[in-house]
Amino acid sequence: MRFDDQNVVVAGGGSGIGQATALLFSSYGAKVVAADRNLDGARETVELIQQVGGEATAVQFDITSRADNERLVQEAVAAFGPVSVMASTVGWSDTTFFADEDEDYWDRIIRINLLGSIYFSRAAFDHMKEHGKGGAIVLTSSDAGKVGTLGETVYAAAKAGVIGFVKSLARETARDNIRVNAISPGPTDTPLLRAQSDQHVIDRMIKAVPLKRMGTADEQAAPIVFLASAGASYITGQTLSVSGGLTMTS
Ligand SMILES: NC(=O)c1ccc[n+]([C@@H]2O[C@H](COP(=O)([O-])OP(=O)(O)OC[C@H]3O[C@@H](n4cnc5c(N)ncnc54)[C@H](O)[C@@H]3O)[C@@H](O)[C@H]2O)c1
Q1: What confidence score (pLDDT) does residue 201 get?
Q2: Which domain range does residue 86 map to?
Q3: Known catalytic residues?
Q4: Whose CA is nearest to atom 40 of ligand 1?
Q5: How far, in Å, is the centroid of ligand 1 from the Cα of 12?
């Protein structure tokens, strides 16, 4: 799993799973573009990478803007040359009941979790196809999209959409040697999970996990990096559950 001198974009790189992913790519030799709506978070990631001698730059962008996704690729190319890996961990959820939600909330959930992944992947595909050297796109779904979660109805729909999108896009991009995969996290100890669940809810989630604990951001980062690596060169169209056995599918 080496990425020496490769240009790797990590969207969502300012927090949680994305920050861990950016650090791990850097430790394998990549030049990392940490992109996030939260510029302070992205800058923190860059500092952490630079402190251990890595190369990185921060870009502020909003994944729900098509123009921002295109600008992100342009800024990444300007910083470190053609991009070989584009990974996104951007996502957002707020546990509520369907009957209490309004259209603005649904719109926000779908735009951040599904439409954003589509815009991001299109910007990645256009760049990688034009450059002609193949590449890897890695997105982030959720086990909520596989088995459903009480209180995350529309989020689960958006994350299930990511799974179908990955399968179909992978078929279209294969001729250009661009692989498309996703991870599907289960409960993972990050700022997002802590913001939406108190300890009581977390304890209940853990009961359903065969490994009887939450995952860590590092444990999500490792499969993202693997899916982007040469070690996964024959893997495309897959969404890998990383959830302590919560979801087992054939
Ligand atoms: N933590 C979990 O238990 C869990 C479980 C299943 C799936 N996931 C998924 O994993 C991914 C990472 O989650 P996390 O727990 O690390 O969350 P996090 O909140 O720590 O990180 C998400 C990052 O996305 C950024 N972001 C949000 N909206 C954005 C936008 N519109 N444009 C650009 N950046 C934006 C945030 O600023 C943040 O830095 C998400 O897609 C989430 O849905 C997490």
Answers
A1: 87
A2: 7-241
A3: 155
A4: 91
A5: 6
Whether 113 is in a domain gets the answer: yes
pLDDT of 67 > 70? The answer is yes
Pocket lined around ligand 1, Cβ cut-off 6 Å = 12, 14-18, 36-38, 41, 61-64, 89-93, 112, 116, 140, 142, 185, 187-188, 190-193
**235 CA to middle of ligand 1, Å?**
24
Evaluate whether residue 56 is within a structural domain.
yes
One DSSP character per residue, 55-113 reads: -EEEEE--TT-HHHHHHHHHHHHHHHSSEEEEEE---------GGG--HHHHHHHHIII
Domain count, the chain: 1
Instruction: Compute φ and ψ for 95, nearest 5 degrees.
Output: -70, 115
CATH number at residue 55: 3.40.50.720
Residue 226 scores a pLDDT above 80: yes
pTM as predicted? 0.98
Residue 27 belongs to some domain of the structure = yes
In the structure, what pLDDT confidence band is assigned to residue 175 with cuts at 50, 70 and 90?
A: very high
- Distances 81 to 9, 33, 103, 185, 221 between C-alpha atoms, Å: 11, 11, 41, 31, 24
